[in-house]
Specification:
The protein is mainly beta and about 150 residues long. It has two domains: about 40 residues, no CATH class; about 100 residues, Lipocalin. Helices cover about 15% and strands about 60% of the residues.
Length: about 150
């Protein structure tokens, strides 16, 4: 009997620890149907983002992966060729910056270094005012938009 009580107490304690250390989310209810529509969690910049970049002559859609370890990558298609760029990011005082290098894609773009800057609102989880600069192999600049998917 003593083993059962001790085992039950241990299981209860472990469950309590697991539940209290998890990120809390707020359930949202549809005001018309009074049904749960989604769980709203505390926003974070980490995750999958979709958007587009635009320079003076062209633009393209892209997808970003911003990871918790400080690395990020984006993927897009230029002239029918898939391109992959990887790099590192940081968030300081509401400003997100990321520097990437193109590692796969059009031959002329491999090795291209780009720096991205945007304003991040930690309350709403939204990135705005995105700009980028390509410093190598040729100079280029433009704007970008990103919307978080998850």
């Amino acid at each position: 009997m003593k083993k059962i009580v001790l085992g039950s107490f241990s299981a209860l304690l472990l469950t309590l620890i697991l539940f209290t250390t998890q990120t809390s989310c707020k359930k949202d209810t549809d005001p018309i149907t009074k049904t749960d529509t989604l769980f709203k969690c505390t926003p974070t910049i980490q995750g999958l983002w979709l958007g587009a970049q635009q320079n003076a002559s062209s633009g393209q859609d892209w997808s970003w992966s911003i990871r918790p370890d400080g690395t990020a990558s984006y993927e897009n298609v230029i002239a029918g060729t898939r391109q992959l760029c990887v790099g590192t990011w940081k968030l300081a005082n509401g400003t997100w910056t990321c520097t990437t290098t193109c590692v796969y894609g059009l031959a002329a773009n491999i090795g291209a270094v780009q720096t991205f800057t945007a304003t991040y609102n930690a309350t709403t989880g939204v990135l705005t005012n995105g700009t980028y600069v390509t410093t190598s192999p040729k100079a280029d600049s433009g704007t970008f938009t990103l919307t978080e998917v998850n």
